[in-house]
Automatic annotation (TrEMBL):
Domain of life from the UniProt record: Bacteria
Protein name as catalogued: TraB/GumN family protein
InterPro entries noted in UniProt: DUF5694 (IPR043749)
Amino acid sequence: MNKPEIMLVGTFHMAMDPQKVNDQQKQIQDIVHSLKKFRPTKIAVEKSFLIEEELMRKYREFLNGDLAPAYDEVEQFAFRIAHELNLPQLHPVDEIVDMDSPSLNQVFEWAKEHQPELFKEILQVQSHLKKMEKGETVLDVLRYINDPDYIKELQRIYIKLARVGDRQHQIGVQWLKQWHHRDLAIAANIARIARPNDRILVLIGSDHLHLLQGFIKDSGDFHLPSVTSYLDT
């Protein structure tokens, strides 16, 4: 019995750059064809089970030629890959977690006001990440956000956030508890849909990659092939 394969593909939120999506449809199609070579048996997406019915309604409309993909990474990538592979459904694996108690903005504001040196360290890491962001095309973005060095550097910010606050106000830790809750739930949701010999393609926001890789790998139940070779299109 072969272990299921889970390939995590970090994505960005396309709604933030609709012009790029419009201008680079040819490249998006090329990426779809490249990711299709993984031959996934299932595709998991960053959507909640609460909207599964709506997600499947849209997917059926897409299959019937009645829906043009929106500025959404699920519709631009997942719908097209699933269609070309004749997959009957998509699997929503996101978890709804209250990320505002405290909010990330409150964590940064605390650091800025009470821990200026730590806030400076965080900004320095963010600046380094910006320097690693090479290229402007959709493929360029997917390449650098899935690069192991970029993922490792991004994780440094989250670890530094744990130091925000004091013994009475663990504001950074409280926010990270919410973040870990969400990613651990996502990892569990992915694992639940896996069957022997499955090849699961997971399209997920790039900020989730580090924790998901660790949670899934640590179970020892799955193989985690890298997406890197599939982005050398």
